[in-house]
């Protein structure tokens, strides 16, 4: 009995040490990636009067401003979230309220199918169907621009957000179904009055992954956004995102000052993604500290 007591504590630490051994290399690789991009971006950041944080991208004249690309990436990602997140909440809510409905089975099959479609297929479909349609409806537009890219990216991010929301909310709904029913609440009342208000973690996860997918996608902005490095003034204007900018410059330049400016673009793109993830997690923990009972009741 004494031997068992002495062995169990050491054995129980093995999974923890294994997980720690897997997590540490990930943090080291992320730190190395940040350091690599920052080191090679330093000459661009301190390149005299032609600051990279300007709104002018004219490499032939020595102007390497990436502000229009940063604005394009952020605007496209935020608008994509504004369009796809409410739709994801509504679709996942319908599936949770009607789990045995025929439409729910159809939605599940469609969501799984959409998650497996390569991004280039979304781009080709939008290029052949959506762009001519926008060109016909809005004669002042060529079809390529912010609106076409926004609609295609919304379709791309929607399945991921639906799966995250539904999987996390279903566990909590099943857990509280019996209690809510005993109080005379319907399934929709349990979902809207108990589950959704107490699920900041599920919404935060969906927002972070949806934003990361939107801001990090390259193929759709490259094919649909028009790729003009300018500040858009309407949904029909052409934009260039950071990812599309990196792809375009990388395919035509090597070893030049224009090529070196890509390191600053990559550093800014990584910083935006990490900053949003950190801010979202901070807000989530702040909410959990202010509402500990609500947060604990939503845990599956």
TrEMBL record:
GO terms for biological process: phosphate ion transport; transmembrane transport. One of its GO terms (cellular component) is plasma membrane. Gene3D superfamilies: MetI-like (1.10.3720.10). Coiled coil: none annotated. Its main location: membrane. The chain crosses the membrane at residues 17-40, 74-97, 109-131, 143-165, 190-212, 262-280. It is a multi-pass membrane protein. It is found in: Cell membrane. Keywords: Cell membrane, Membrane, Phosphate transport, Transmembrane, Transmembrane helix, Transport. It holds the Pfam family BPD_transp_1. The keyword Metal-binding does not apply. Belongs to the binding-protein-dependent transport system permease family. CysTW subfamily. This is ABC transporter permease subunit.
